[in-house]
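Re: [ENG-882] Designed sequences occasionally contain unexpected residues at chain ends

Forwarding the minimal case from QA. Structure tokens:
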């Protein structure tokens, strides 16, 4: 009969059949080390995601410039731009190390997607973004406003 009323079923039941003080030392140390690994893993996972940020950019216009520096066209047809980036806008994960750059007011490379490189600049008015990609002899620059959200 089980002397410990809380342990009635489960894989550890045999350890307590004679009471909790009769657990073998090796089994105790293994359980302790597994517990430590699980706790450290959970804390590391939580810390890594605690400040994870997502940047969502909605672009309003596109400038097309030749590699020679000639301004070819300005596209401000919102529906065409919406088709390219989708209703939710362009979303990228922002590394924690880049968050402080938003406060600096300087332009920085936030990441790259299949649609191009994404540059951000934080200011008192918010976050502005540019998506830049090169297609042959053309440089396509999309201008927009971005929002930073945490914990997504």
């Amino acid at each position: 009969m089980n002397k410990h009323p809380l342990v009635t079923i489960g894989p550890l039941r045999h350890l307590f059949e004679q009471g909790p003080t009769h657990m073998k030392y090796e089994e105790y140390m293994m359980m302790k080390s597994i517990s430590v690994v699980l706790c450290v893993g959970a804390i590391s996972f939580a810390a890594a995601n605690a400040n994870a940020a997502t940047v969502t950019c909605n672009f309003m216009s596109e400038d097309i410039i030749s590699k020679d520096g000639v301004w070819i066209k300005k596209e401000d047809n919102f529906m065409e731009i919406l088709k390219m980036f989708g209703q939710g806008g362009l979303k990228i994960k922002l590394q924690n190390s880049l968050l402080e750059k938003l406060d600096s007011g300087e332009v920085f490379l936030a990441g790259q997607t299949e649609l191009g490189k994404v540059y951000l600049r934080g200011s008192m008015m918010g976050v502005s973004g540019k998506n830049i990609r090169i297609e042959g002899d053309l440089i396509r620059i999309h201008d927009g406003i971005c929002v930073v959200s945490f914990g997504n």
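QA comment: On inspection the terminal residues look reasonable. Residues 13-49 form one domain. Proposing we downgrade this to a documentation issue.
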